[in-house]
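Problem 3 from the worked examples.
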Amino acid sequence: MKIERTLLKTILICERCGGDFSQTETALTCSRCNHVVREEDGKFFFSSVPGDIQPFDKRERGPDIGTPWRRANWKFLQQQVEQIPPETIILDVGAGRGDFVTLFEQRNYLTLDIYPYPQVDIVCDLTKIMPFRPQSMDAIILMNVLEHVYNSHELFAAFAKMLAPGGKLIVAIPFLLKLHQTPYDFVRYTHHALQKLGEDHHLTLSHLEGYYDPAFILGEGINHLKYNVVPAIPKPKHYFLRAVLLGLEVQKRLLQIGLGNGQAVHPDHTPNPAPVGYQVVYTRTTAGATHFEG
């Protein structure tokens, strides 16, 4: 855990009655209703773990590691973190294997996920359970997670309650990207939908950029053909299509050389927007959070 336990106690509340917790070596106990939240391997379990989830392996992340989209995410988040005061309380939702943990060294940093990965502090589904005090968070991180949330309005309602006025919600979400981590991959949002989602919960879209990389999108299509379509084509047409794929891969590499890295720009500055994904910052307004009626 990257946050002091004394500070953690001021953040967490009983999700059943809103009471304060007392803490032992193995549990949190509500002083009002005696509800117990177990602690195991340094994690607090507010939710049960879904039985059908497929945990993913650890992958190295960094400004120059991974896909162009992931590298762009790193640089975007690093820029946002550098603007956050050191005393800020930060919650990384859907933190998984802790891809960005090195960006938060010497910070009040807390990780949350619905699966108890080794790097996770709190196991909780925020669309169902709210164990945090209102306005207790200064910043919330949601990197490549929103597409895996079916009840997005419930999640944003929780964020609106948790964020202090002026607090930041920092989001990266793919758009033209293949399905991943199924069966927990549900949605793709346009930037219009992302803006409306924030407005419904008094979260102002203070920063919006689409990440555009035509060579990367071409590569996604080539991989789909290579691994899913062409292997099922009978011979001799199969050999012809494999030769076509080789030619496409060469063209993709030439396109990468000619275009260089992808670009992050506002969608309104792109005549025909086809982003790999969006990188967004919401700011919590001073208006009170409202319950969304879908």
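Problem 4, a separate protein:
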Amino acid sequence: MIVGNGLIAGAFKREFASDPAATLFASGVSNSAERRAAEFAREEALLRATLRRDPAPIVYFSTCSVLDVERAVTPYVRHKLQMEALARTASSHVILRLPQVVGRTDNPHTLTNFLRSQIVSGVRFEVWENAWRNLIDVDDAAAIATRMIRDRRYWNRTVNIASPHTMPVPELVAAYERVLGVVANCQRVDRGERYAIDVGQAMEVADSLGIRSQPDYIERVIRKYYGTESRT
């Protein structure tokens, strides 16, 4: 079964909506800049209720941002680590950490929707010069995650599902400019840093599924969801 109705939840509906073999908890706080305690409390209460109600293995979707030293002190990352710990109290669990997941969603708080909106509107925004971001197609993330959930070797583990390509944010903005045909009105600021994401296990599964991550992977994902052809 699936708890949630956002981008991540929707990607698993066909496979798990009526499947009692696992409970996928995909109803977390959707805004990484969130600071309202009530929003974090809402997710915690729902996760606790789900753990009490559903004996099936719990699959909790967390974030690769927990690996980012600069963001480790944010309320969002602290909350996700607390929820990971709570999910681990289940006798069987899978914790899947995701980077920026790209797909069709109206959520304005995703990095990719934010960048597209700011660039198209011409609104001036800051670009962190030293920050790097990892993007993965929601379809690829769902395929890899499904294989792991079905494979008991991944139970009671915490696994990163991300692409092997991490891109500096200024280059990410440049990729959007090429895809959208619009020059961004942005100001570079000396902030951010790069952090490593171990994707070894995810890439083993990706290879077995025939998912290939070429050097232009990130730009191809942006073009898939934000290019001219995607809107026709």
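Solution to problem 4. The domain at 2-231 is CATH 3.40.50.720 (Rossmann fold). The chain has a mean pLDDT of 94.
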